[in-house]
## 1
Amino acid sequence: GLDSASCFQCVSLLKELALGGRTIVCTIHQPSAKLFEMFDQLYFVAKGRCLYNGPAGAVVPYLASRGFVCPSYHNPTDYFMEAVCGDDSTTPVGDAGEDSATTDGDQQKGECMVSALAEAVRSGQCAEFMRAYKSAVAKEKADAAILADNASATSSSSSSANSNKNPDQSLANNDSDSNANESSVKDDSRTGHFSTGTLNQFRVLYVRTFLSIIRDTQLTRLRLLSHVSVGLLIGMLYFKIGNDGLKVQSNAGCLFFCMLFLMFTALMPTVLTFPMEMNIFLREHLNYWYSVKAYYLAKTLADLPFQVIFPVIYGTIVYFMTAQPLEFMRYFLFLTICVQTSLVAQSFGLLIGAATNLESAIFLGPVTAIPILLFSGFFVTFSTIPVYLQWLSYCSYVRYAFEAVLQIIYGMNRNHLECNPDASADSSESLAPCLSDPDFFLKFFSADGAKIYVDFIVLCMFFVILRGLCFLILKFRTRASR
């Protein structure tokens, strides 16, 4: 089912594998003369009988030695098939009787050819011809090597005489040759084994990856729908509690769920889809279509707009429906942390997907998220974690996201919260004391000494480190596959 160009590429790859020491056995349908010349050995079978077994290049002289001369400028395989099958297309076509007689005669010729060639193989005449053919080829190669050595000696003596006559010209020629070699080496080092540069590889891969995301309407629509629907659900559940001093604990739960939701919506799709792309990536990279860095950079940047747009939509819905402080700087920083959390979670998913197969990635994705959430500072505050386990909280990127969000909402010199027990008379929280002082609430979560810019820098470091580790794993897997 391949066209001529694809078939040539496929056979060329098989030829390279064979030259590397592997044995390749294959059947091919109507090969062109160019493809036929690429095969080393030919084993021809007709009607269950071997008609030829030897080098592919010797089939034409062997047929000629048996009385079956291939016409000039005729594909040997076509002639072989037509003669054996009794299809002589050069016979003129007359009336129906002549046509039937011609067909019968061609079939008889084909049967005679099959019998003659099969008998030659069985009796050893084919093997004897192959031995003579190989010795003749070896003699021709030896004679050609002697002629080449003589020609090289003659040219070297003449060039020596010319250099003695004009040493300056010889030096100039040598300089020009060395410059040409240096430029050739530079070109090879720039492009490596690939037929095009890294920039062009990145451009094509970026467009392809972006279009594949756009065309995967089911996943893209599900991602958009989930961010909008869950944002509306959280907005209705925590409606206008952002400035209520009696519901600060509920508001903290709302903020933590935002980080939790953004983490899983970025982590799990990547964990599920990236391992399935690895087989395609490895096959195309091992064919020297593009480099690892071009693929990885295109993969990272193509999905970046979606990892920014979806968290912004979700964060905007939740921020205004829950009545968080109506200040542009707080709103902007809140969205920034949401986007950064999503990017770090996606990086973690890429790392898992690159290092494992699909079955393992499905298991490791949720399992590795448990300690990340457990040491985030919401379920257990940092001050109550045992000393020998506190170091684990520094490995949780959700901790820095949650800490930064608490500072954005309740820090930055925020005014005291409203306390209106009558509005919450039907709530159990009306029995709790009103936490009107935001600083007191930050101390409760051990976030009073946190710095927003420090948390942002740490999240950026998580992003860079995880992406770097993923790139190194991809490089390792490609080398192992090669």
Note: Strands lie at 41-46, 49-55.
## 2
Amino acid sequence: MRRAGLGEGGPPGSYGNYGYANSGYSACEEENDRLTESLRHKVTAIKSLSIEIGHEVKTQNKLLAEMDSQFDSTTGFLGRTMEKLKILSRGSQTKLMCYMMLFSLFVFFVIYWIIKLR
């Protein structure tokens, strides 16, 4: 009967004292450690990036809420102004026409006066 330590009758992949299987395992283990460390750095970077994105989203949502309230107040102000214009337009057209004629005459006399002074 032969000894298991010399490569026969032992577990598969065990080559006795030559160390071929152990060196292959060691190289794979080192590469796994290197890849694991690289993956750890990438996960940490993605985590910090996602946290920053979360903070930015919260800030943008706050800004949008403020803009929404400002637009609501502006819409109310504009609505009230339009209602006042509707009331004004329903008023007497004769009165408005009279004001327009007086303004036109005033502008005409100012222009006449400026031309006369030259």
Note: Confidence is low (pLDDT under 50) at residues 1-8.
